[in-house]
Structure formats: C-alpha cells, structure tokens
C-alpha cells in the first residue's frame, strides 16, 4: 500500500500530519503550564472525559460488534494509555521542564522495540541495539544534569522517571491496541480505547470542580482535550490515509523539536547544553533503531505478533 501511495500522494496529507505533530508536540507545553493552576488528577479527569465524549460516536459501533475478548483488550489498552501514560506524564510535568519531557517522550519507539523483543519475539538486530543504547544515553543526559539544573533537584529526577514510565506504558498500549486497529480501523479503535480508559476518571468528577482557571488555563485545557487528544488523532489518521504510513510517520521526528521550541516560546524555558546534547542523542538513537532491519513475523503467528515495533508510529495510535 505504501509503495502505491508514495507514487500518488493525495493532497493534504503532509499538511494534516504536520498539524497533528505540532498539536502533540505542544501537549507537554500546555500541560506544564496548566499544572500550575490545576491538580494533575483534576486536569486529567476533565480532559479525558471531554475527549471521550467527543470520540464516543466512533466508539459506539465498535462496542456493539466487539466480543468479550476484544473488549477486554480495549479496556487494557485504555488503562495503559489514558492512565498508565497520561497520569505519570501529567504528574511528572509538575517538576520537569516541558522541553526535557518532550525529548524523553521521543524514546517511545525504543520502548516499543524493547517490548516487542521481550513479548513478541521480534529479533533485535545490531542497529536496533545500537540505536536503543544511543537513545538511552540521551535519556541519561536529560534526566541527569539537565534535571538537576532545573531548580527542582530530586523532584525533577522523579519527574523524569515518571515520564519514562509513561513511555513504557505507551509501548504496551501500542502493542495491545495494534491487532484491534487492524480489525476495526485506527480511528474507531483509538476512540474505543480512549472511552474505555476514561471510565475510571468518572470516580473523580467530584474532585475536579468547580474549575477556577484563568483564560489561558481554559485555553490550555481545551487544547489538550480537543486539540491534542481529538483533533490530533483524527488529523493524523487522515494524513496516513492520504500520504501513506511510511512517508507520514517520518514527521513524528519533528515532535520533540516542537516541544523544545514551544517550551522556549510559551514558557520561557532555556535550552541548556544538556538538553540539546541529550535531545540529539535521543533523536539519533531513535533514527538508528528505526532504520534497523526487522524480522518478518511468521504468517501463522498471532495478530499481536504482527504488530511490533515496525507499526508503532505509522497507524495513528496516538493518545496525547
């Protein structure tokens, strides 16, 4: 499909993909700004329930036709994405600069590779191992000197650890949701997992209000719920449809760049030498690992085994 699509890319694919990447890249910036006005759990409760409400029309048809096993997988994916990913990131951004968080989040493909190797039996070639090592060296630079110099000391290190924990949860989310995305389509599958993952937040509705936010706070909250979580996902899937997954997925390497620039412009953060060096190592490692050869799964293997690292970025299972 990608070869055919590459030869005749439909108009709008690159533009839609760039907008989605900008929305996702600015999500850590908006979250970092908003946690100064709203507690992380209250923020996530409003954000996830609002996004789930908008995505509900795509989820209802899936719920009606899905069997018990698929619904259980949707629930697991939703918990990994909406709680396992979003909660640690939001809490961690209380103490970690948005630029550092954006760069740490760029290691997501590496963790998908690691989990695919551990749980799906995908072989990790030399380039994959080298790239993973380089990316993790970048993580050490960002989470070490950069975190300590942020003024939050040990709390910044804890924030970095939480963001890294979130990237691992996202890797699990990607692998769990992949066969469902193949079966039901990326948009319905993502919508259903979002709705499933938002259900636990209903227990915290009482603690989320009444909201007393500034105008900028309301704008940031609506951006996160409707811009990043909803519009970003829909635009990304439109971009993949029009431009092909291979071509469009390369745009994801711009996401941490958007995070760093957004943090500098909107939050006044300074890009320290540690952040720049660590960011270069992270991006270089991800690029090296992504270029490594991947084993083609045996046709008789399960759908999950066909959904390893090679599929992580391309099909729109984004959840920011």
Describe the fold and architecture.
The protein is an all-alpha fold and 320 residues long. The protein has one domain. It is 75% helix and 0% strand. It has 14 helices and no strands. The chain has helices spanning 2-7, 13-34, 40-65, 68-92, 98-105, 108-119, 126-152, 154-184, 186-198, 205-208, 215-243, 245-249, 255-266, 273-291. It is globular, with a radius of gyration of 19 Å. It starts with a helix and ends in a 29-residue tail after the last helix. 55% of the residues are buried.
Briefly, what is this?
By secondary structure, this protein is mainly alpha-helical. 75% of the residues lie in helices and 0% in strands.
Task: Explain the layout of strands and helices.
Layout: H1 2-7, H2 13-34, H3 40-65, H4 68-92, H5 98-105, H6 108-119, H7 126-152, H8 154-184, H9 186-198, H10 205-208, H11 215-243, H12 245-249, H13 255-266, H14 273-291
Helix pairs in contact: 2-5, 2-11, 2-13, 3-4, 3-9, 3-11, 4-8, 4-9, 5-8, 5-13, 5-14, 6-8, 7-8, 7-14, 8-9
